[in-house]
Automatic annotation (TrEMBL):
Pfam families: cNMP_binding (PF00027). This is CRP-like cAMP-binding protein. CDD domains: CAP_ED. SUPFAM superfamilies: cAMP-binding domain-like. Transmembrane segments: none annotated. It comes from Chryseobacterium defluvii. Residues 32-118 form the Cyclic nucleotide-binding domain.
Length: 191
């Protein structure tokens, strides 16, 4: 049962055969996670890919002044990893934290490679999902770097409405790349 949500998500991108479903169940490990649980520490290799059945995860780093910057928040039916570290291209400078109790599926880099080699269909599905995530990151990068404050808040409301009442002002401000004080002072734009 724990894998059905992932399989249903993947089937939005193409048919998943019975043997592929079996491999997914073999390689993705279900985990019950707790709020504030750290899944990957900064400077540890990010050799895992997470799929969220329930709950919220975030990837964040700290700048030179110690301020936490949230790169991404993932929720139900989303993936989260540091793709550069996961693929072995870069070091991992992020921490992966659970924002609430939940259930996730986890696959290691080694098992992911085996899964991708086992099926060109799954590899094609992965490529489609990767393209979708790339588009999401480009849009987010544009919002963070070119939008004024009001437009950032409208973007938050339009693209992530379910986060507004679920996450703290501090986390939402970190996601927008602004201070908590600035967010609190201006959040009337989205309420």
């Amino acid at each position: 049962m724990k894998h059905e949500q992932l399989i249903n998500f993947l089937q939005k991108y193409g048919t998943v055969s019975e043997s592929e479903k079996k491999n997914i169940k073999n390689y993705f490990t279900p985990l019950q996670v707790k709020k504030k649980q750290i899944l990957i520490e900064k400077n540890s290799p990010c050799n895992k890919l997470f799929f969220i059945n329930s709950g919220f995860l975030r990837a964040f780093y700290s700048n030179d002044n110690g301020k936490e910057i949230t790169r991404m928040i993932a929720w139900e039916n989303r993936f989260l990893t540091n793709i550069g570290s996961f693929k072995g291209f870069t070091e991992n400078n992020e921490t992966f934290e659970c924002l609430e109790n939940g259930e996730i599926l986890c696959i290691t880099r080694d098992h992911f490679d085996i899964l991708m080699k086992s099926s060109s269909n799954l590899k094609n599905i992965y490529a489609d999902i990767l393209e979708m995530y790339n588009a999401l990151h480009i849009k987010r990068f544009e919002a963070l770097n070119t939008f004024d404050l009001d437009k950032k808040l409208v973007h938050l409301k339009q693209e992530f409405p379910h986060l507004i009442h679920k996450l703290s002002d501090t986390l939402l401000a970190s996601l927008l790349g602004i201070s908590r004080e600035t967010y609190v002072r201006n959040k009337k734009v989205i309420l």
